[in-house]
Amino acid sequence: MSHPADPEEARAGRPRAREVVFRAIFEADATGDDALEVLELSLGRFRFTADGRAFALRLARGACDHHEEIDRQLRDLLERWSLERVSAVSRAILRVAVAELIAIQETPVRVILNESLRLADRYAEEDAAAFINAILDAATRRIRPGSLETPREPPGGGGAGPLTPHLG
Fold it and tell me: What is the pTM of this model?
């Protein structure tokens, strides 16, 4: 896999795509407009790599195609809260992340979680990152069971991992 040499090009890839999709979902939620139409308008305002543009479209389609499932998952995880009570920014970040968990299986969950926290740090209220992290941790365990578990080395594997006692 090649990595762009230009730092601006790197920022115009998947991280920028997630941000633009987040902004489109936020705007569509606020205005009632179609998220894909909002995204199409947004794509013209930003410079993307070919991969970033394709990824943004794929992620937005996943968010739209799975909208009911995404919101159902989030409602199930929000104990004593309604989805409508979650701030619009946090709700949009959660929807994008859950869409990626569902629709783009090849993205590692750690990338999805880290990118969601990056968006929260940039756009959400001060304490939102911890809330978003907790909800996405639970969502990840439901949608991609076992994906957050650290793989255990087989006995006698001889790897250079941390030394921990083996119990059981």
Answer: 0.81
